[in-house]
Write a structure and sequence with these properties.
The protein has 4 helices and 7 strands. By secondary structure, it is of the alpha/beta class. Strands 1-2-4-6-7 form a 5-stranded mixed β-sheet. A two-stranded parallel sheet has the order 3-5. It is globular, with a radius of gyration of 12 Å. The N and C termini lie far apart (26 Å).
């Protein structure tokens, strides 16, 4: 999976460049995140502006990253499409993950 990565001091923004975060992409997505986490990047903002569809595998990859960063880190989301936001609400992940309208707002709230 192609992913754009930007660093803001100790915060890293990851922006998947694919429109779907499903079973065919989730393992690579999770592995890419975990690889960065193992190098010490534990304050992560996921910019989902290009993602229009996410399934349970994609959500599982995000939760894996959240668990891996532990209590010293955090995973936040930004630029979430309405249909993905609805899925986050249905699964109640909107109560677990902080979600922001823009990357700038997400970075400012770490």
């Amino acid at each position: 999976m192609k992913m754009l990565m930007r660093e803001y001091d100790d915060i890293v923004s990851f922006q998947p460049q694919e429109s779907r975060l499903d079973a065919s992409q989730a393992v690579k997505f999770r592995d890419d995140l975990i690889q960065q986490i193992t190098t010490g990047k534990i304050r992560i903002l996921l910019n989902l502006s290009k993602v229009t569809f996410i399934d349970s595998s994609g959500l599982g990859a995000i939760i894996s990253a959240l668990r891996r960063v532990g209590v010293k880190g955090d995973v936040k989301l930004c630029c979430v499409a309405d249909q993905i936001m609805e899925m986050l609400r249905l699964t109640r992940l909107d109560k677990v993950l902080e979600i922001f309208d823009s990357e700038e707002a997400g970075i400012a709230n770490f």
